[in-house]
Structures are given as structure tokens and as C-alpha cells.
Amino acid sequence: MSDLTHILKCGVATVRGFKPVEWFQEKGRRAKLRCCSLDRLTVALPLYSYFIGNLKEMPMANWLALVVAVVCLRVSPAIVHAQNLPLLNMGYSGAGIGSDLLKVIDRSGLWRKHGLEVKVVYLSSGSLMAQTLSSGDIGIEGFDTPAAINLALAGTSLKIVAVIINRLEPLFVVRSNIKTPADLKGKKITISRFGSGSDIISRVALRYWKLDPDKDVSFFQSGNTPTRVAALIAGHMDAALVSSTGVAKILATGCCRVLADLSELPLEYANYSVVVSGSLLKNQRENVRRFLQAMTEGIYVFKTKPDVAKAVLKESNNEAEVGSLYERLTKSFREYPLPEPRGIQNVIEFMPTPKARGARAEDFMDTSLIEEIKKSGFIDKLYGGKG
User: Fold this and answer.
1) CATH 3.40.190.10 given to domain 171-266
2) 178, 184 contact by CB (below 8 A)
3) Nearest to 213 by CA among 221, 203, 204
4) Cα angle vertex 272, ends 248, 102, to 5°?
5) Which of 18, 73, 159, 229 gives 366 a disulfide partner, CB atoms 3.0 to 4.6 angstroms apart?
6) How far apart are CA 117 and CA 121, in angstroms?
7) CA 66: distance to chain centroid?
8) From edge to edge, which strands make up the β-sheet containing 239-242?
9) Where in the chain is the domain with CATH 3.40.190.10?
């Protein structure tokens, strides 16, 4: 499935104050835009099947997907309501943990509490998000660390300013006939894209199990999470990384089992990071600090107000699974989300691009904002004096 097709079917997500676009093709020649209002985080973006049926070239599909995202970021002239708040555009990819945290922040009114209007747009892959960040249409990226570092290695100015989860988080899910890591030899592993988070984390796990990712297994690019999961359930693939928010649905089919919970591996890994463009960090440093304060308080709300967090988790998980999932995520989210060199370096060392060789984590991170927030006493006050 192309990035465009995914956006057509699954939509572009944003927050309050934004008007998404419905793009209709008239007789294959003319297109027009019609806006509709939105209050919450996710919205379907239906387009006529003309696009799906005729855009078969991947480069063109990717380009048009980017155009759709850019249009959705720009079409609303009344972005800020009664208050004249600074606007920040954020893109994110991947369903589950990151999007759930963003929902908690939005529904708790934390962006506005910290004096910002934040427009959040869902992009169907880390590579598409990197393109949008590179173009300047978003200034903040969450939460795909490898995609951001790939972009930085290609020359784009950006910095990792926070890491909200600094360990491997997914579960390594396999077909039921696979009992041990050694059984993965000769098997097919589905990932989203080469160089993506799913690719790199899979390689980290395989090397930890003393397997050679380039010789012992085969990788197949399958696109977004639903497509990868479908390939695994259907038996076309033998293994895939699955987030903690999605594993129960796969296991319920009886096709598969969890080979390993990667969060139990003793490795630091900058799994979920917040990345800011160099120009935004330079020109709107104070607004970026406010953004990080809202993000940090969102983690606090998630960890200390279970009713709020569980209400979000119930939207995409069975109620019976929500309790254990919530406990897992409260342990994963970091109260003090400072970027750590070791966690970022582990991402770099497993990246397949030659440009990553010799790269230093310190060149891609800026810890000053989170350090300032910590020094101000903001985090300690949230947790009642807890350091």
C-alpha cells in the first residue's frame, strides 16, 4: 500500500482548531477543496477512488501524499481562535503509544495551558514525515528517532530535544511455530521501510540474539503497521515488531505468539524522541520550551491520572487489556525525558546507511531545554517534590 493510499483510507490527524480538507476529483480533470470542522485528534480524509485507481507510481504517490499533508497544514486561515497564541506544527508517525500521549495532552488542554496552539498531523511513515520536516511545513517531529537521524545525516539541521522512552518498547511477535530466536534463521521479517524504526529495532534484537540480520533472515518492506500486521496474520511473513497497544488483537487470532518483550532487554535505546528543526529551535526557542513543558506535564497526567489515560487506551484496546497496558506504559514514560547519548548512539550504530558510521550522538541532541525545565523546579512541582 502506498503512502498516499494509506492517507486516503486512514486519514490525516490533527488537533482542535484545524480544518481538514476533502479533496474531490471531478471527471479526472479538476479538483476542488472543501473544508469541514474538526474537534478531536483523528479524522478520515476521503478522496474519490480516481486517485487510488490511477496513481500507481510510488514516487508520484509519495509526492501527492506530501502535498495532501502540506495542504492540510496550511488551508485553515483561522488557526488561532480568540487568543492570539503562537502556532507550532508537529508531525508524527505510528499509531499507539505516541498518539495516545498526544490525545492525553490535547484533552487535558495542556498546549493552551502553556500558551501554545499546536497543530498535530499524522503522517503514514517516518520517511514521509522526514520529507515534511525537511520542507519546513512542520517544525517538530515525533517520535521516529531513526527517521530524524537519517534526515540529519543528509544535511538537514535538527536536534533531538527530548526522549520520552529510552528503551526498546515493542514486542517481537512471530508465527506460532517459532519457539526460540534460533528458529528465526531463514525466516521473513516484515518492516515498514529500510532504515525505519521497525527495521533498526529488529536488527538490534537479532544481534542481541547472536543472529546476523543481513544473512540469517530476510526483510520485506510492507508499509504501515496495519499492513505489516495483516501480512503476519495471513502467514505471508514470519515475524514483526508490534507495539504493546496492538499485540492482544494479533494473539487473539491464534496465529502468533510473543517471542520476546524487547523492553526487558538491558539496552538503552532512544525509542520515542521529540525532534525540532534547527530554524525553529533558533527562532522560537521559548515556544519550543513551552512545548516540552506541555509534553512533560502530559506524561505526568498519563502516569498519575489513570482515568484520563485509560479512557484514551480504551478507544483502541479491549477493556480487559487496558489495565496491564497502562501499567506497562507508566513504567516506560520518563518523568525527566532528557536525551541520553548512549540511547541515541545505539540508534546510530544499528542504522544501515554508511553515513552513520562514525557519527556521534552528541551532534544530534540538545539537552539544554529539558535541563532548564528541570532546573526551574517544574518537574519536581508536578510530582510533589519528587526528583
Assistant:
1) yes
2) yes
3) 203
4) 75
5) 159
6) 13
7) 17
8) 218-221, 188-191, 239-242, 171-175, 256-261
9) 87-164+273-319+332-382, 171-266
Q: How far apart are CA 31 and CA 165, in angstroms?
A: 42
φ and ψ at 236, to 5 degrees?
-75, -25
Beta bridge partners of 144: 272
Contacts of 203 by beta carbon, 8 Å cutoff, 6+ apart: 213, 350, 352
78 HSE (CA, 13 A, CB side): 9
- Grid coordinates belonging to 32: 476542488
pLDDT at 51: 39
Pairing of the two strands 87-92 and 117-122 = parallel
Please, which residues bridge with residue 240 across strands?
Answer: 173, 190
User: Grid coordinates in use for 53?
Assistant: 485507481
Residue 165 has pLDDT above 80, yes or no: yes
What would be the CATH architecture of the domain defined by 87-164+273-319+332-382?
3-Layer(aba) Sandwich (3.40)
Burial of 27 (0-12, 13-18, 19+ CB in 10 A): exposed
- pLDDT tens, position by position, 16-50: 333 333 333 333 333 333 333 333 343 333 333 33
